[in-house]
Amino acid sequence: xxxxxxxxxxxxxxxxxxxxxxxxxxxxxxxxxxxxxxxxxxxxxxxxxxxxxxxxxxxxxxxxxxxxxxxxxxxxxxxxxxxxxxxxxxxxxxxxxxxxxxxxxxxxxxxxxxxxxxxxxxxxxxxxxxxxxxxxxxxxxxxxxxxxxxxxxxxxxxxxxxxxxxxxxxxxxxxxxxxxxxxxxxxxxxxxxxxxxxxxxxxxxxxxxxxxxxxxxxxxxxxxxxxxxxxxxxxxxxxxxxxxxxxxxxxxxxxxxxxxxxxxxxxxxxxxxxxxxxxxxx
Length: 282
Known about the structure:
Blueprint: E1 4-5, H1 8-28, E2 35-41, H2 45-61, E3 64-70, H3 76-87, E4 94-97, H4 107-113, H5 125-133, H6 141-152, E5 161-165, H7 172-181, E6 185-189, H8 196-200, E7 205-208, E8 226-229, E9 233-235, E10 238-240, H9 245-249, E11 254-255, H10 263-279
Parallel strand pairs: 1-11, 2-3, 2-4, 5-6, 5-7, 7-8, 8-11
Antiparallel strand pairs: 9-10
Helix pairs in contact: 1-10, 2-10, 6-7, 6-10
């Protein structure tokens, strides 16, 4: 059978339209206009592209956006000073430092310096802890986007077997917790998992976030599974995910494409988190 394509672009557009309407209403009622500050240290081309895309997305929904582009040799103290200034500003509700940062800057120190309520990336230990115990929290954008894709696609999670391949702090671990909160039975696999295919073939919902093209082939997926491919890998001929799309699409009930699946959802959830930070509505 041919899998149904889970169209991340269309779902993201729908959610962004709702965000735009809410911001327009806030403006009309003299409410807080959500403000996002993005800090980029250095000239990494991929990071520059991500930051430009975030800036455009903010403008498209009527959100206030500020981008701080700092030289690559910026020291940690200077960056912490800027974060402290932004923490104190009432018109900035979300702060994001584009990762990775240069080697002279400690990533953990930067994440910890952002006030948890302005941590729209959802990486601060306070937000991680809140997610762990099921309290309201800033949720990391990609995992939150994955859950939105599943919801908008009508995928029932209660009692289902979910397998997450990848254990990063950014995707694998938080999406496993979110699936668990939705009453799925969750298995986390990784590079040292024995008999990976034995686990993935049991999945009703399979989330793959390894950063390696072709990690999951058709024979590793059971008939009728829902497959979420988080990977974005540049190869000769363009971008591919972590899933062998053509093989898996012949067995899955639904699958996300790369590009056009999870990718558009990440910035969309960043906008949603910033709106949440501005309004205090969780």
